[in-house]
Design goal:
The chain is of the alpha/beta class. The protein is built from 14 helices and five strands. Strands 1-2-3-4-5 form a five-stranded parallel sheet. Pfam families: Glyco_hydro_1.
Length: 331
């Protein structure tokens, strides 16, 4: 496959990682968080709690396809959600260069699932952007919308006759967060914290909408599938249900984690609490540069009604106070 931003993240000289053979025998616990500037130990190692591990070989589904499907059958699974790796099928990011070995793997996987009466639910993007596209700015550059549309078109042409349920982007919130810190690929750095995340969110939403419209216009009638986006959230509760500030903290946190993606797909606007919070922070920190751009009227038309159902992943349960809300949302 082609190189993804995660390959680059772990294998450049500043971010070296390896998988020693005895790792699982004696895992080395570390404190949280740890940042070793100028060394080869990357911050993500500390976040995960262990040193010297990467994702070169994870669950190894590429080589364990038959075994995985046998396990699914034994479990009685009737639906299986998996992601297609963008750089595995289009190593350079667009369909001018196709990796047919990668394409055949996914064709085989989908066919075997259907042979065993298991419905495939296919995610187009689960964070592994081709490095070549990150060199253009990745999700912070609006040109990514056209690249993602080209990629999706290739997937629909190649696999669409066998797939009924698609998810464009998995957990876009984390994609955006990665552009404002060093803890996830592409590790842009904190100098863009509170700026690039909003640019990325905007482009993610417009990319989803572009793919949705593409499918409805070109493929929906013949393939009869549905397009979704997979959002993540936690379950937030006020620490004190009688305290108005705690209730407001919960509402605000939901807006920043979930509403920032759902509301634009419903009415084409960002939640009012987010716009007000950014304005307040800008005034407090004397920031003169515009950090979030609302959608144009034409973009609103593209966004609205471009979702039929949502996929969600639930992560943790959290009780919030206004103080803890500020820690989570500092933009």
């Amino acid at each position: 496959k082609g190189a993804s931003i995660w390959d680059y993240y772990f294998h450049t000289k500043n971010f070296v990682a390896s998988n020693p053979g005895d790792f699982f025998k004696k895992p080395q616990k570390k404190k949280f968080p740890i940042y070793h500037k100028g060394t080869d130990l990357h911050a993500l190692d500390a976040i995960r709690g262990y040193s010297f591990i990467n994702g070169d070989i994870a669950c190894d589904s590429y080589n364990k396809l038959d075994e995985d499907i046998d396990n699914l059958v034994e479990l009685g699974v009737n639906t299986y959600r998996f992601s297609i790796s963008w750089p595995r099928v289009l190593p350079n990011g667009d369909d001018r260069a196709i990796n047919y070995a990668g394409v055949e793997y996914y064709k085989k996987l989908i066919q075997k699932l259907k042979d065993n009466k298991i419905k495939p639910v296919v995610t187009m993007y689960h964070w592994d952007l081709p490095v070549s596209l990150q060199e253009l700015g990745g999700w912070a550059n609006p040109i990514i919308i056209e690249y993602f549309k080209n990629y999706a078109d290739f997937l629909f042409k190649t696999f669409g006759s066998q797939v009924e349920l698609w998810s464009t982007i998995n957990e876009p919130r984390f994609v955006a967060l990665a552009y404002g810190n060093e803890g996830m690929a592409p590790s842009v750095g904190e100098m863009f914290n509170g700026i690039s995340e909003y640019m990325v969110i905007r482009n993610l939403l417009l990319a989803h909408a572009a793919v949705y419209r593409l499918y409805k216009k070109k493929y929906a009638e013949s393939q009869t599938g549905e397009i979704s986006i997979c959002l993540d959230t936690a379950a937030y509760f006020p620490k004190n249900r009688k305290l108005a500030a705690d209730i407001k903290a919960v509402d605000k946190t939901y807006d920043f984690s979930l509403g920032i993606f759902t509301q634009p797909l419903v009415d084409g606007t960002f939640p009012k609490s987010i716009l007000e919070s950014i304005k307040k922070t800008d005034k407090y920190e004397n920031i003169s540069m515009k950090r979030i751009f609302e959608f144009t009227e034409e973009e609103k038309k593209d966004l609205i009604s471009n979702i039929k159902y949502f996929q969600t992943t639930m992560i943790i349960l959290t009780r919030l106070t206004i103080q803890f809300c500020y820690i989570i949302i500092n933009h």
